[in-house]
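tool=predict chain=A
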Amino acid sequence: MLEADPSNTMVMFGLAKEYEKLGRHEDVIRVLEDYLSKTDDEGNAYGTLAAAYEKIGNREKAIETYRKGIDVSMAHGHPSMANEYKMTLDLDFGE
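tool=predict ok
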């Protein structure tokens, strides 16, 4: 499906979630970075992307991505998502 329409962001996000289930973290990162360059996500992709960065050991990029996710989710009216990301930063990263 993505081959037929490489700019289909809904398919891109779904593919990233499938990669996440398979533990293919670098593929999650590749797909979501491309996805975020093409669409205005409301916050969910940032949490998935940050977790993938954390799993490959890139803590700095994970922290940066969670922080961006907080800003984006608040801007889109999702304070509970922003709070979840803040708690993850506090508990898992000592922020």
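Residues 59-75 form the longest helix (17 residues). The mean pLDDT is 93.
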